[in-house]
Amino acid sequence: MHAIAVHGGAGTLAAADLTPEIDRAYRCGLEHALRAGFAVLDAGGASLDAVVAAVQALEDDPLFNAGRGSVVAASGQHELDASVMDGRDLRAGAVTGVRHVRSPIALARLVMERSPHVMLAGAGAEEFALEMGLTPVPNTHFATERRLRELERFLNGDPQAGRASLMGTVGAVARDADGNLAAATSTGGMTGKKWGRVGDSPIIGAGTYAANDCCAVSATGHGEFFIRAAVAHEIAALMRYRGLGVEEAADEVVMRQLVRLGGSGGVIAIGRDGRIAMPFNSAGMLRGAMDSSGRLETGLLRN
Fold first, then answer.
1. Strand arrangement, sheet containing 296-301
2. How far apart (Å, rounded) are the C-alpha atoms in residues 284 and 265?
3. For position 88, what pLDDT does the model report?
């Protein structure tokens, strides 16, 4: 069985603010990404190609905090992070703090496939992108009026401003027909972030992990806690060494370990058998799943 899951971030999403129009827009974006990735799988393609296709669809959607539509740092710039991992051989690539790369997930894949490194940061990542032939875009390419207003409110001391930045980080996990797993994650980070802050999304083992012997995971939420708990790898370790199923392992980490630390958010995870888990301990998580048995679902809040 081939299958894919995507997320569009986890955080505070008040039911009262979820108008029918916003609900439809989020679900449409999630389903578009699911179908982009599933089309690759359905044609016999690799899980790695599928997760990159799904994440690129979300990076191009201004609703989400990744690519176009990313939140704004305190400097007034967009600073983007992404990572990808191939479960076949544990190859991985990541970029952080890029400002002129239209698709950070595409650059993360190039780091994995065309460099001897796993993570490149800032100006070095931008230089590598140019060497790989990627056409730079102005930083304003990522701007939306909504995100600029969020930054203004944040800088003016509004304690609620920026909470929406947690809702929007994107990711995908997939299993292809050959049983290979892959994961990818992309984000604009946190509204008003300073000092070159890096969250979990580009960190292998925290925000992204994939290994064919257990699972593929993409995380979303308050990144500092996900780094401390090594969330993505912890789920894999519980499956690998304790024999837990993907649902049980993901619940243990998200609903218990993270909660004890005070961290909020969730994950999407897929096991080597194609089972999908999408637990979250926050008010909402934009999420969706699709598989070759006919499953197609999207969700925003708790059922």
1. 119-121, 91-98, 80-86, 181-187, 170-175, 3-11, 284-291, 296-301
2. 8
3. 98
169 tagged catalytic: yes
d(C-alpha 103, C-alpha 70), whole Å: 12
Please give the backbone phi and psi of residue 143, each rounded to the nearest 5 degrees, phi first.
Answer: -80, 145
Angle at 66 between CA 62 and CA 68, to 5 degrees: 40
Active-site position among 19, 144, 169, 208: 169
Q: Considering its fold, how many domains does the chain have in total?
A: 1
Per-residue pLDDT band at 237 (split at 50, 70, 90): very high
Q: What is the pLDDT of residues 141-200, one digit of tens each?
A: 999 999 999 899 888 887 666 555 455 799 999 999 999 999 999 999 999 999 999 999
Domain extent at residue 248: 3-301
* Beta-strand pair 284-291/296-301: antiparallel
The residue behind tokens 């393609």 is: 45
Give the per-residue pLDDT at 157. 85
| CATH number of the domain encompassing residue 111 | 3.60.20.30
